[in-house]
Amino acid sequence: MGLFLQGLRSAGENRRLVTTSGPQPDYSSLRSNVSELGRILGDTMASAEGDDFLELIERIRGLSKGAREGSGQDQAQLLEQLRALDNDQLVPVARAFAQFLNLANIAEQHHLVSREMDPLLSASRNLSNSLGELRKEGVAIADIEQAISALKIELVLTAHPTEITRRTLIHKHSEIGECLARLELGGLTSREQSQLQLRLRELVAQIWYGDDFRRERPTPVDEAKWGFAVVEESLWRAVPEFLRRLDEALEQHCGLALPLEAAPVSFVSWMGGDRDGNPNVTAEVTREVMLLSRWQAAELYLGDVTQLLEELSMTRCSDDLRQLAGDAHEPYRAILRQLRSLLRDTLASIEAQLRGEPALELETLQCQEQLWQPLLACYHSLMDCGMDIIARRTLLDVLRRVRCFGVHLVRHDIRQDSARHTEALSEITRCLGLGDYADWDEDTRRAFLLRELGNTRPLVPRHWQPSADVREVLDTCAVAAEQSPEALGAYVISMARQASDVLAVHLLLQEAGVQKPIPVAPLFETLDDLSRAREVIGDLLENHWYRGQTGGRLMVMIGYSDSAKDAGVMAASWAQYRAQEELLEVCKHHEVELTLFHGRGGTIGRGGAPAHQALLSQPPGSLKNGLRVTEQGEMIRTKLGWTSLAVKTLALYTVAICQANLRTPPAPRKEWREVMEELSVESCKAYRAVVREEPDFVPYFRHATPEQELAKLPLGSRPARRKAGGGIESLRAIPWIFAWSQNRLMLPAWLGAGAALASACSNGRAALIGEMAASWPFFATRLSMLEMVYAKADVELSAYYDQTLVPEELSFIGERLRQQLQADMATVLEIDGSDQLLANQPWTAESIRLRNIYTDPLNFLQAELLKRNRQQEEPRLERAIMVTIAGIAAGMRNTG
């Protein structure tokens, strides 16, 4: 692809991370892989579209590079070239740049797990070094053992309403990564190398000649299947591999072994259970997804048991196993055949139910112990008979999976908006002649709910016919009642604002016949909700019935997306921090163990940050009961989509949690808190002055970004808005942030923060802010994330969108925002004492700079396409817009 990769090939000297000691990263293979993939893409395009097309792409790339280097003439020619494209050229030109960025991302992902980076990023080294450091610091072995024993990592896989990439394309990307990994191995013959190169060319050709996007929106069941595929293709192997490495690190530094029954990591799914604002998620959908989850688990265990049947052909066994196996010559295989039969019958029975038929009258897999006990008996027999090396390989991996995945593969959360529960109770109380529940004050609601929770008679009249929406709420509770407790994670209440919102769900679940209490987790999302979280939970824990219901354990979810949309990132992050502190305090007072559930997204505007950095910036004690955090769409792919990446991610979470719990993290000083309070108030005021109080802001937003076009694209099963019409408040946080990342203003991730920092510095707080940046991880992380946002934002591109799309009478808004952005950048650089963004992260800065050469044409082209399509809608234009959206998302490395 010649010149298409010249910029990447010539950038090697700058690709170094600043480190104080230890091995330095080497990016030579990354440069080589990016060059090779780009060359293959160029050859593929030339073959498919002709040499003239490749020359056009090279010309656009060259002009983009010149424009980035400051040539006004190159920029003018670039715009002229893009505007001159006819409708037939739009999609292929956009695809050329989008696919190059996708391939560059694959090369970078592979680089993170390559042998070249192993001395720096190895999961085994990370775990071992961290435990070693803790021991050197004087942490007792018993304390480390306790921390590992209490380790609980729950990753909640969620669907993504702006998920761009099709599952078939994700598979091809994974295959490309696999080829790169195999090419990295030494000792390949020339034929083996040639075959791998041919496979790469085949895969790139499959991508180019295929369709990048689905034609119709995925259903919630489709999304759930996508989530199960991630487990099958990556996590099923990653979990036992991670546990093996953790076991080795414990043995090396503490002389301990990880217990066989240890299950420090597990997975939960919102796919098919998250009905908040998604009318496509029904009770029947949730029931089907739960069946599919059990089916997938049984299918995976069947594969494992079949492999063990091939391997465990030994004849020597313990007396205990002989009692189980009888007179069989090969006792292990006799036991495994019984398991195989059980799993086959389970699959047949579930398949019948999925067809709408009754479950078959067969013994089926219902609980972990049905797998655990016979496999454990085999394990102990092998150990007793001196066959440790056999016991501690494949069989041990299967035992680890049984504990971590159970028989349901993932546990399922249910999420619903509190208003839907209020609506259901309103209909019930009106039917009973008690008045309208919705009109009652909080004390009246609470008294009614507690009275009914203690009542054994049915609440709902037998022949009552509720409305369709209320019937759906009741049916969902009925589905929860049908499930075994191990199948369910939590019932999450969106927009929880008062104690009655929690009690209402307990009552509806009780009425549906739920026998064992399900954790009911209120989600505090807006600034006001976060500020009242302590009061709400305190009121609940004062009640004897509720305290008994919790069993001494409570889960509360902290919302990052909607709080940032409501108040801006600075005010939201401080409100989240304070809410966690206060919740920990009130639960400690009532002797209740609190699990904090973090509803983070991948982007900074939704609470995203490098995982290790984010966890260590949490309030002291917040990780005592483990980590429960959402992993969404593209972040699932980026962090968990490949086995090697998933192992690293799990190791990173483990290290951060252990460090946070075994070290004493710095608590903010009183004067730091005072500064944060000021920053929170000022940043919120500045944010809302634009988003809420500027009367023309919503029209400007809809002109300047592809928000309207995003809503039309078949990206996810969930609508972009919670309700039709409305302004920013009705728009979901993910497409809100996605839209601003497309026009490169990145507004939700910075608006208000810099203005508040500048105000504080000018009011004599500069020295304190410098102390906070140097000594408080929470505040340092905020500044670091602002720098990242500023580095990805682009004032000139945003201005071009405005010139192309925004009516003149609204253009003043964009001009003010860009002026504010530039002032904010200067403020943060002054606090850092630096003259350039990301000065201490040169590789990140260089990566962004190089990507811009390929992302800029997509931005310019997108603005032109939006203009044309808004004048006259046309399918070709809409598809081209979708390609630019995907390409820009790849260049930014995130969407919502």
From TrEMBL:
Q: Is Magnesium a UniProt keyword of this protein?
A: yes
- PROSITE patterns linked: PEPCASE_1, PEPCASE_2
Gene Ontology CC: one annotated term: cytosol
Biological-process GO terms, alphabetical: carbon fixation; oxaloacetate metabolic process; tricarboxylic acid cycle
Q: Which reaction does it catalyse?
A: oxaloacetate + phosphate = phosphoenolpyruvate + hydrogencarbonate
Keywords carried by this UniProt record:
Carbon dioxide fixation, Lyase, Magnesium, Pyruvate
Matching Pfam families, A to Z? PEPcase
Which HAMAP family does UniProt cross-reference here? PEPcase_type1 (MF_00595)
Tell me, how does this one assemble? Homotetramer.
Q: What's the protein called, per UniProt?
A: Phosphoenolpyruvate carboxylase
* Provenance organism: Seongchinamella unica
Q: Which gene specifies this protein's sequence?
A: ppc
